[in-house]
Amino acid sequence: MVVAGRRKSIAFFIALGVGLIIFTLLLYVGWVLLDWRAGILLFFGIVLLAFIIGGVVLNTIFLVREIRRNEQHDAFINAVTHELKTPVASIRLYLETLLTRPVEEQKRAEFYRIMLEDSDRLLSTIEQVLRTGRVGPSNRIVNSSPVNLTALLEDCVTRARTLHGLSSETLRCKAPRDLMVLGDADELRAAVSNLIDNAVKYSGADVNIAAELSRYEDRYAVLTVRDRGVGIPKGELKRIFKRFYRISESKPVRVTGTGLGLYIVRSVAKRHGGRAWAESEGAGLGSTFSLQLPLLQ
Amino acid sequence: MSLILVVEDEAHLANGLRFNLEAEGYEVLVVDSGEKALDHLLRPNSIDVVVLDVMLPGKDGFTVISEIRHAGQYVPTLMLTARGRADDVLRGFAAGADDYLTKPFELTILIARIRGLLRRRNWEQNAPNNTAGSAKSEATGFTFGDKQDKSFSFDTLALRVRDQTLNLTMMEANVLRYLIEHEGKPVSRKSMLEKVWGVQENIDTRPIDNFIVRLRRYIEDDPTNPRHLLTVRGMGYRFVAVPAEPAD
């Protein structure tokens, strides 16, 4: 809401700036037409005006970028606060319950399971935040070795099926034998897991995901993860890989997360000489995420 | 049996809250979005207390509390959220929350706060006629106005303005109580932040102005030309029980 309010106020000032520029140009052109003899002076005047207009435009672009960055930063702080505090609150609530109330055996087992899931969620958030620092562009890959991407994908899919309670029909996997890449196995595992977890999270209740690994031009391995979830509006396809960015929430179910998952995917891809991108027909039409990595020659 | 509405989209927390509140003998209704909460709260209901999360799918907790207060629904509401920054807390109170508790929380504290809100609910419901003010509320209240036709009960938090009675939220009542206690003297926004909200930090004081706007709407005959809640420029506010100049 605050974000929407800020956007409205920016829109007004941008429209005002554009309007004033057009008005000034009209005045100038009008003056030239009326008094063409003062051409030389007008030429310098126009150059000067072009500088001023350029300055105003650059200033506006900078302003908009800064505001967007602030919004994303606020959203990130709120998301991380939520992602860290919520599982802690839940674990604490169940521990206090077990300590202070009589709880029958079956419920007790359920509470233990919930606490375990919450501690996994907490750990996953902490790992995402720490990994974001490690995969920055200035850090080099330390543990580079041949990695069997096929086996790694199959591992990640098996883990996701267990974690989210999915069958081999709802989360399908297809991969040729032993596609090998050179890189850091931990980082690659994090990137592949993020893509699959993202697809699950944004699928809502009706999960239908296909993860497919293939060879491209005998030089690259390409992993595509296709879901039939909420999809991505066209204007957000590139931005979703930015740090802290999360797609706008018009969904009936709030998706948890920190806005770091896809940033990690793209950073890992770049560090391994590859790239990552997203495609979608639009909101509500599902999306396809691709990760391309050079094959080990 | 008191009915508590828990608005929480985190299933684990919602289940834990339900288990504990039911063990305390309350009836519990859980919903997982702001819209569903509004569906329940904006139609006739028997909800006694709302436990409201802030970060919800769709409409967030601030919007929900603000909308129900605008609709004249004064059910006691506790905001239970991970957002514990001073400006979030103030925003919650400014939107109309009666209490604010941050996650992670202590179960005993949560239950004590809910009991406090239920106690207040019972006082309100048991106040005779909920209007003209009983002997008890007169004794523990404050009467003001040109014709002494306005009163505020410290017990039931009911504000009586001529023939109408309004049930203030806990924070609205606390702000008014603080101003009444300093009747005639200027009170700074900073001291209100410290004494009413318990916030020591240097933060935006606009939420206080929002409270004053609301209180003026309740108390003043003409809120645009206040005679009880006066602005002291550059400082804060001053409460005047009987204005020097009579109303036009």
CATH architecture of the largest domain in chain B: 3-Layer(aba) Sandwich
The CATH homology group name of the largest domain in chain A = Histidine kinase-like ATPase, C-terminal domain
Category by helix and strand content of chain B: alpha/beta
Largest interface: A-B, 28 and 27 residues
Overall body shape of chain B: globular
Dominant shape of chain A: extended
Mean pLDDT of chain B: 85
Characterization of this structure:
- The complex is a heterodimer of chains A (297) and B (248).
- Chain A is an alpha+beta fold and 297 residues long.
- Chain A folds into two domains: 1-134, Signal transduction histidine kinase, dimerisation/phosphotransfer (DHp) domain (Helix Hairpins); 145-294, Heat Shock Protein 90.
- Chain A has helices at 2-34, 39-100, 105-134, 149-164, 185-201, 261-271; strands at residues 145-148, 171-174, 180-183, 209-216, 220-227, 275-280, 287-294.
- In chain A, the strands form two sheets. Chain A has a five-stranded mixed β-sheet, covered by helices on one side.
- In chain A, strand 6 (275-280) and strand 7 form a beta hairpin.
- The longest helix of chain A has 62 residues, at 39-100.
- Chain A is extended, with a radius of gyration of 26 Å.
- The mean pLDDT of chain A is 85.
- Chain B is α/β, with parallel strands linked by helices and 248 residues long.
- Chain B folds into two domains: 3-124, Response regulator (Rossmann fold, 3-Layer(aba) Sandwich), CATH 3.40.50; 128-239, Winged helix-like DNA-binding domain superfamily/Winged helix DNA-binding domain (Arc Repressor Mutant, subunit A).
- In chain B, 41% of the residues lie in helices and 20% in strands.
- Chain B is built from nine helices and twelve strands.
- In chain B, the strands form three sheets. A five-stranded parallel β-sheet of chain B has the order 2-1-3-4-5, sandwiched between helices.
- In chain B, helix 3 links the parallel strand 3 (49-52) and strand 4.
- The longest helix of chain B is centred in the middle third of the chain and has 20 residues, at 107-126.
- Mean pLDDT of chain B is 85; it is low at 129-139.
- The interface between A and B is medium-sized, with 28 and 27 residues.
